[in-house]
Every structure is written in structure tokens, then in C-alpha cells.
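Hi, here's the filled form for the chain we discussed.

Project: internal
Contact: R.S.
Residues: 237
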Amino acid sequence: MAYRFRGDDRPERPRYLVVHGWGSSAAYISALPSGLAETGAEIIVLDLPGHGLSSGRSLNMRQAVDAVVEAERRFGRFDAAIGHSFGGAALMLAAGGVMKGAGAIHPSKLVVIGAPSHIHWLFDEFSRMIGLTPRVKGQLIRRAEQVAGASLDDFDTVAAAARRSTPLLVVHAEEDKEVAADHARRFDGLATARLHWANGLGHRRIVSDRGVIETIASFLSENGRSVHEASGGDAAA
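And the returned structure, exactly as it came back:
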């Protein structure tokens, strides 16, 4: 399922893709796309597989990347892609073309909010929580790599950002208890990345905060034309 905020209907208006996090939905993060639509931009918001009103009963990173890539095929190239948490990681991996056979997206800017920058920590914590032996943990990782079509080492959004050289805004709260702030700090020093600390907003309130939305809108409005102006017209949708 995808939802469209039409913005101000100018043919040259920018188009942004917005993606929610794990266990969330487009409805849950609706303040973000509706706030960005106030700038006049056209906004496409996804419900990832198994979430919101989308069909399915499962979601993994490969499915999320496939959905994001399909959104660009369906609606045309986006001027920017914005993702919260798991959705932010999916956008970065899709932009980096990390997963074999999945394709890639080509936004002019990227924004991640409270997003993980690598995946090893999740397997480490899950294995420790339920007491997996090293052998079983290794089997779990190999299975995940088979499903994704990529090595766990490739699930590194900092490396993906470095390869793409796309302007990137990283928004995070230092007290985030679900995705540690160290994930955002890994981008420090990357020439194309800008860090914005939204302290006090945790992992979930951050995505709907008016100040955060205004910071994102300001970043997206910097430096000129939309891809539709540059290409001479609006893409078919």
C-alpha cells in the first residue's frame, strides 16, 4: 500500500518517499509526510509488507528493499527519500544497491531518523537473549544472508553512503533506547553526511516532532531544483 500527498500540484514540485520503521505504519508516522507536504512537495508514503494496510504476514530487509525499489519504478525518481528506524536502513541499502538482484533507488538526498547503521548488533543481542550457541547463531546468519542476497558485512549504511556520495541528513536522539546513538556517530566525518541531534525525543516521538520535520524540510529545500525540473517534466505516476 502506498499513499500520496499531492502537495501544491505544481508540475515541478519535488517528490519525496517516506518509509516507516519496524512494527509501524504510514498512519503512525503521518505527521512527517503531512508536514513535508506543507512545503508543496508531493509525498509518497509506503506501508511495508506485513504492516499497515499492505498484504503479507512477514517482513525482512530484502522485502523492504524490494518494496522501496518498486516504489521508484512505480512513481519515478524521488528527489529525496526519508526513513525512520528500520525504514531508514532499508532506504540506505536500496540507495547503495547492496542486495544482489534487488536493484537500487536514485534519490538526490537521503534522510534517516533513529536508524541503525549496521546489523551485527541485532544478531548479537538476539542470540544472547535467547541463548543461541555460536554454531546456531552462525546458521541463523547464513540463512539471513541467503534471504537477503548479501553478506551481513554489507548491511553497512555508512559504507553505502560513502559509495553513493549523496547528501545525507542523520537525525538521532542520544538517549534512544532502541537504536543506540553510536549508530549515528558512525557517520561523523563522512563528507556528505550531516548529523542533527534531537535529544529528548527518544526513538518514536522523534519522527513526529515539529522541530525535526522543519529541520528535514530545510535540508531538503537547500540547493536548487527538483529532479523533475532538471529532467523537464513530471514523471508518470
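Let me know if anything looks off before we file it.
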